[in-house]
Specification:
Blueprint: H1 12-15, H2 27-52, H3 59-68, H4 70-99, H5 103-135, H6 142-146, H7 149-176, H8 182-196, H9 206-223, H10 225-230
Organism: Spirilliplanes yamanashiensis
Transmembrane segments: 29-52, 72-93, 105-130, 150-175, 182-201, 207-224
Keywords: Membrane, Transmembrane, Transmembrane helix
Amino acid sequence: MSTTTVSPAPAAHEAAAPARRGPVVGRRVAAVALVAGAALNTAQAVLTGLVLGGRDRTGEQEIAAAVAHPQAVLAVALLGLASVPPLLIGFQATAHLVRARLPRVGAAAALLTFVGVLGFLGLHGVMLAQSILVGAGHAGAVPALQESPLALVVVAPFLLGMFGGTALLAGGLAVTRGVPRWIPVAYGLFWVLDLAVGAVGPVDPHWLFLAASTGIAVAVLRAGDQRWTAGRL
């Protein structure tokens, strides 16, 4: 008479254990997105300062500069729009690194930066509309567009999501120490300077963002696929 061996049922805690969330993209795509998004964003910021002036510019000065340099303003808008996809991927990739050791912080950073990038997309959509109005000889309609509910609605998600999310990313990278320490320092210093001072002549804080993003990209590439998937560089 044969007997049948019945394997024991898995423990309840094993059956209920949640699966670890993997990265949104492969490490090579993540690295390219980190550098490309930051580079496009930096180019857009530097060109904005050169064409439209510093953050102390008035609305009238901005419109006058747009009328004088319509092609440059169009280029600013297009650079901003082109930076959106790689910025989104880059932020989500960085959040993956934080989430591996600080799940809640990483998840909050991923959500906030997603909202912030959507606001960033809206801001440059408005800028593109301004460029079209100026090019068509309707510069007088630009102030109404700038003060419209559409323009105001996209500012709040941008400020809350982008600055809040990236602050969490900088703090998370500093705590987890998955990348060289200078990277979260440069990341955090960029946002402090960008909020408090902005560009000073040719010196723009966005160069710090580009440096930090490039540093993260290098660390991701050196990690290999297994460590990247685990989020532990």
